[in-house]
Amino acid sequence: MNKDQQISSVKIKQVSLLxxxxxxxxxxxxxxxxxxxxxxxxITIYVVCRKYNFYLQEEKKWKxxxxxxxxxxxxxxxxxxxxxxxxxxxxxKLGNAQAYMTKFNVFLEKIHSYIYSKIGFDILSKxxxxxxxxxxxxxxxxxxxxxxxTLTVVLSMYFILYFMLEKPRLFEKxxxxxxxxxxxxxxxxxxxxxxxIMANAIGIPVVAMGQGLVALIGYFIFGAPSPxxxxxxxxxxxxxxxxxxxxxxxxxxxxxxxxxxxxxxxxLAAYCLIIVGLTDNLLRFTLLKKLExxxxxxxxxxxxxxxxxxxxxxxxxxxxxxxxxxxxIQVYRNEFSDEDTPPDLHLPDKDDExxxxxxxxx
Length: 362
Description:
This protein is mainly alpha-helical. The chain has 14 helices and no strands. The chain has helices at residues 9-31, 36-59, 64-94, 97-119, 126-147, 150-166, 168-178, 183-221, 227-237, 246-258, 262-291, 296-310, 314-336, 350-361. Helix 3 (64-94) crosses helix 9 (227-237), helix 4 packs across helix 10 and helix 8 (183-221) runs antiparallel to helix 13 (314-336).
């Protein structure tokens, strides 16, 4: 073998050290898998509260412990309790899995029979009906079982969060110095991650709660069955792009019509299509567009993965993980490509922000 073809000792050491780091990281993650949602949650809330934490500690000269506790309490009331309320409501209503599946089967059969009698189209064959029931049962059981661990996740999350908020400069210094990346890419990850977290932790829950509350009014007005349960299901379904809340209220409307309550069923359908749909568009095109434009597929696959891994907390963590993985792929290309920073990956500077504000005004 020629000297030119020999692997340098530096590369051997580099690969060996990287392998050791990966093995140790995998070992740590495997044994502390229970706390992964807690770490993700702590990082999420830290990013949301970061600006206010620096303001209280550095400008208002608050004690670190005081600002940390105040922000933790505020995040608990504003961010965690609404999500926990929806999850707890679904657990309470759907806690008896066998009774729930019996009602769901009756509900599904009623819709199927009505559509078949009206248009003669077998929308779901018997085999597909069985598969759908089985899939819904397995998914709901897995999601609910994951949610039972929510209290443990929240307690450990706030334990971790306290130490992040108490010494934020030290925490960020450790993260930035530990990242084996160029400084520009570290800044890129920080900026993009902040936008992703704000969009998922603030934007998506606000849209979900907004649609759920507006739909709840319609459920009460038109006498839908179990309106409070439908509120929780609508809020959860509204987080799914494209189909959104329609996956809940359209079957409910068909069910009401099939039960003979045609007037209320059609009224609820019109209300949801117009009012709830308008609420969805209004919130998405105002709030979410200002935060970060997340591709719908990221949200869909993120929610599926997140619900399976983390229960209802995965509604937020799942899309963040998918988006962050794609961001790391972009950073990898930027870090090791021969080109300079690609145009779509550059960090916004003051001129960019000024130009963006001018465009918004125009």
